[in-house]
């Protein structure tokens, strides 16, 4: 398992950054850095299963293992989705954790990813652009 860390400072309150991360419209915008048309299905509540999908219903499904609104969320990735069909995968502790820390209206966004080596190059290439999108949306939306 490879541990990857990504960080960015955002000139906005944590509640605003959280909203950009997880509101449907802005989620679709910042995650376009990974795949155009990305979206998720499900409710952001601890213990729930969330599906991360592309326009062709391909993606993955994950369990929310930790959630503190406006501060932290951790997903445990459970399996793949291909043409809408879920297939469990033994990815071990493949997690994706978002942590927001605010100090005087500046939010530090830290993302920690535990992933298999096969996905490491993808995340290293795409995540900096995705976080740049989050920063832009958070600082420029009313």
Note down, in words, how this protein is organized.
This protein is of the alpha+beta class. It has 3 helices and 8 strands; from the N terminus they run βααβββββββα. The chain has helices at 14-22, 24-30, 120-140, and strands at 2-10, 39-41, 49-53, 59-68, 72-82, 85-88, 95-103, 106-115. Strands 1, 2, 3, 4, 5, 6, 7 and 8 form an 8-stranded antiparallel sheet that branches. β4 (59-68) and β5 form a beta hairpin. The longest helix is centred in the last third of the chain and has 21 residues, at 120-140. The N and C termini lie far apart (39 Å). The model has no long low-confidence stretch (mean pLDDT 96).
Q: Radius of gyration over alpha carbons? A: 14 Å
Sheet-strand content, in percent, reads 35-45%
Order of helices and strands: EHHEEEEEEEH
Can you tell me the overall shape? Answer: globular
Largest pleated sheet = 8 strands, antiparallel
Helix content: 25-40%
pLDDT under 50 segments (min length 5)?
Answer: none
Q: Report mean pLDDT, rounded to a whole number.
A: 96
Give me the secondary-structure category.
alpha+beta
The beta-strand count equals 8
Specify the number of helices: 3
Quaternary form: single chain
Could you give the distance between the termini? Answer: 39 Å
Please supply descriptive tags for the structure shown above.
single chain, 3 helices, 142 residues
Brief summary of the model shown:
With 142 residues, the chain is of the alpha+beta class. It is built from 3 helices and 8 strands; from the N terminus they run βααβββββββα.
Q: How do the strands and helices of this protein lay out in sequence?
A:
Layout: E1 2-10, H1 14-22, H2 24-30, E2 39-41, E3 49-53, E4 59-68, E5 72-82, E6 85-88, E7 95-103, E8 106-115, H3 120-140
Antiparallel strand pairs: 1-8, 2-3, 3-4, 4-5, 5-6, 5-7, 7-8
